[in-house]
Amino acid sequence: MRRLRVFGAGINAAKIVDLIAWQFADTVEVKGIYDDRRPAGAKGPGNLPILGTVAQGLDEVPRHDVDAFVALGTKASAKSCEIFLALRAAGASLPSLIAPSAHISPSVRLGMNNLVFPGFFFGCEVELGHLCWAHGGTVVEHHTKIGHNVLFGAAAVIGSFSALGSHSFFGNGVVTVPEARIGCGTLVGTGSLVARELPPHVIAYGHPARAIRPVRAGDEVPVEEDVKRLAELGLL
Q1: Residue 45 carries which DSSP code?
Q2: How much is the pTM?
């Protein structure tokens, strides 16, 4: 039985706790949650205890025989990356959680701290970075390269030989043609069709998808300055 402590007590943490109870009850036990918005001793998702602040978790997890999973919200994904890097530097274990009913080709290369929901499909020779979330019903076709901190909504279809930049977000039902190129820090809106490529650091949607405006603070992907800073820290 793996013992796990979660960073973050919002919606993403609730998804983690629920998925573990559903798909990993025999192998993973969540011991508690670290969060900066709720006091120690309060209850978080799944009625689990808040163990302390994020800073306390960064100190405690590497000193205990437990795994960690970073699960802050999408609007705080840059902070998630920073916590992930700090835990990794301290030698903490950051496993990926892959639902048994997800379909993962044997040649797929997976990073750490990824969450893959039931019904997801990864094809041959797909590369997936760290801190990615993959919701059910999505298909990523063969020989596609995916960066770090990428979120897939439900029922997206990513064509073969595509390259998806780090810190990007693909809404429900997004479709890309084969060999699509998506820049870092780009959000593709629900139901959009990516017909060739999209630049970095934009909000894009439509048929075909086109850049509508630059990413701004408060969007569900990091702003350009945060992406550059994370790249300097080694996560691009």
Answers
A1: G
A2: 0.95
